C-alpha cells in the first residue's frame, strides 16, 4: 500500500506493464474479517495461485463484506460481476436444503463426522451449484458451534425470550424453536449488535467469539459443540473456462491444498480460541444434561423438517452419510 502511494503514476504504469499483458486479476469478495482463519487461508490460496501461475492470475481478496455484503456474494459470482467468492454454505439453504445439512444441530459434531458429511454432500452441492453457473473450489469447516450468553444457561427454558443473533435460516429456525427472538447479524457487525442491545445471545464458533472479543459484551460460553458448518469458495464457471489449461490446473491444485490446510487450521482453532475466551474472563461451561437433552429434541425436530424440505436429494444424502 505504502509503496503504491509513493510511486508516481508513470512508475505504477511501468510496474504493472512489466508483469504481463495477459495477466488477469480476479476480485474475490469474502464475508469475514482478515484475522479469521478462513480469510487467512484464502489469502494463502491467492498467493499459491499467483506463484504457480507466475503472476498470470492475481486473486485480490476483498474481506469482511467490503466489496459485496455476505448475502450478495453468491449472486455476484453467479452473475459474473466477480469471478470468485466465499460464503457460508448454509446461507443457500433456502435455495436447496442440501446446502444447509451441515448447520443442523447434532447431525455431525466431530471433525470425523463433518468429513463424512461433506463427502456425502459434495456431489449434490456440486450439481446444485453447477445449475447456478458455479463450481465449488473447496469447503472448510468452522470449529464446533457453542452457545454465548450473558448468564448461565441450565436448560432450553433459559433461552426463552432472549434476543438471539443468527447467521442463516437454519439457526433462525433453531432460535424460534428455543423460544428465543432471532435477528440476522453478519460477523463484522456482532460487537455493535451486542453493545447496542439488539442481541444478547448467539451460537457460533470459538473463533468468531474470540475474534469478536465476546468478553466485551457477554460472560458465558457453553461448549455444546452442536454442529460444524462450512464455508465454500466458488468460482463462476465461465470465468474458470476462460483461463488457459495450465492456469485452471494451478487453481484446482491450490484449492485442494487450501481445503486440506483449512481443515487442519479449523481443528487447531478450536482449543486455541476457547483458551483465548478463558484468558479474557469468559466462563467456560460444560453443558448440563438437561440443556443437552432439550437441544437434542430441537435438533431432532429440525432434522424432520429438513427431511421434508430436502426430499429425494436429502434422503440420498443422509443415506450416504449414515451408511
Ligand atoms: N462463524 C460464522 C459462521 C459460523 C461461525 O463459526 C458466524 O458466526 O457467522
Summarize the structure.
This protein is of the alpha/beta class and 323 residues long. It has eleven helices and eleven strands.
Query: What count of structural domains?
Result: 1
CATH architecture: 3-Layer(aba) Sandwich
Structural class, please?
A: alpha/beta
Identify the CATH homologous superfamily.
Bacterial extracellular solute-binding protein, family 7
How does the overall form come out from the CA principal axes?
Answer: globular
- The unreliable regions are 1-19
How many helices? 11
N-to-C SSE series? Answer: HHEHEHEHEEEHEHEHEEHHEH
Strand order of the biggest β-sheet:
7-6-8-5-9-11
Q: Helical amount among residues, as a percent range?
A: 40-55%
Average per-residue pLDDT, rounded, comes to 94
CATH topology name, in short, is: D-Maltodextrin-Binding Protein, domain 2
Describe the structure.
With 323 residues, this protein is α/β, with parallel strands linked by helices. The chain has one domain: 3-Layer(aba) Sandwich (D-Maltodextrin-Binding Protein, domain 2). Helix content is 49%, strand content 17%. It contains 11 helices and 11 strands. It has a 6-stranded mixed beta sheet with strand order 7-6-8-5-9-11, sandwiched between helices. Strands 3-10-4 form a 3-stranded antiparallel beta sheet. Strands 1-2 form a two-stranded parallel sheet. Helix 3 packs antiparallel against helix 10 and helix 5 crosses helix 11. The chain is globular. The relative contact order is 0.17. Bound molecules: pyroglutamic acid (PCA).
Amino acid at each position: 500500500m505504502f509503496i503504491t502511494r509513493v510511486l508516481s503514476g508513470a512508475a505504477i504504469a511501468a510496474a504493472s506493464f512489466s508483469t504481463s499483458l495477459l495477466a488477469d486479476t480476479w476480485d474475490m469478495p469474502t464475508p469475514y474479517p482478515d484475522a479469521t482463519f478462513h480469510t487467512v487461508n484464502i489469502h494463502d490460496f491467492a498467493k499459491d495461485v499467483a506463484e504457480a501461475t507466475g503472476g498470470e492470475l492475481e486473486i485480490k481478496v476483498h474481506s469482511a463484506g467490503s466489496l459485496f455484503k455476505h448475502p450478495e456474494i453468491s449472486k455476484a459470482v453467479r452473475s459474473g460481476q466477480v469471478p470468485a467468492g466465499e460464503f457460508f454454505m448454509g446461507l443457500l439453504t433456502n435455495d436447496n436444503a442440501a446446502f444447509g445439512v451441515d448447520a443442523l444441530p447434532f447431525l455431525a459434531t466431530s471433525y470425523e463426522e463433518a468429513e463424512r458429511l461433506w463427502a456425502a454432500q459434495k456431489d449434490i452441492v456440486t450439481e446444485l451449484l453447477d445449475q447456478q453457473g458455479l463450481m465449488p473450489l473447496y469447503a472448510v469447516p468452522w470449529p464446533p458451534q457453542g452457545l454465548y450468553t450473558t448468564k448461565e444457561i441450565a436448560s432450553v427454558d433459559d433461552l426463552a425470550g432472549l434476543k438471539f443473533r443468527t447467521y442463516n435460516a437454519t439457526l433462525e429456525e433453531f432460535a424460534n424453536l428455543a423460544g428465543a427472538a432471532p435477528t440476522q447479524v453478519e460477523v463484522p457487525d456482532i460487537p455493535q449488535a451486542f453493545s447496542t442491545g439488539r442481541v444478547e445471545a448467539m451460537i457460533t464458533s470459538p473463533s468468531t467469539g474470540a475474534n469478536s472479543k465476546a468478553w466485551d459484551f457477554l460472560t458465558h460460553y457453553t461448549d455444546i459443540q452442536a454442529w460444524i458448518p462450512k464455508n465454500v469458495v466458488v468460482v463462476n464457471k465461465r470465468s474458470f473456462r476462460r483461463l488457459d489449461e495450465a492456469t485452471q490446473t494451478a487453481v484446482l491444485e491450490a484449492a485442494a491444498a487450501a481445503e486440506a490446510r483449512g481443515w487442519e487450521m479449523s481443528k487447531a482453532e478450536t482449543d486455541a480460541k476457547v483458551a483465548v475466551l478463558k484468558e479474557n474472563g469468559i466462563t467456560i461451561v460444560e453443558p448440563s444434561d438437561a440443556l443437552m437433552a432439550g437441544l437434542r429434541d430441537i435438533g431432532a425436530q429440525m432434522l424432520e423438517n429438513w427431511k421434508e424440505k430436502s426430499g429425494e436429494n436429502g434422503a440420498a444424502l443422509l443415506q450416504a452419510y449414515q451408511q
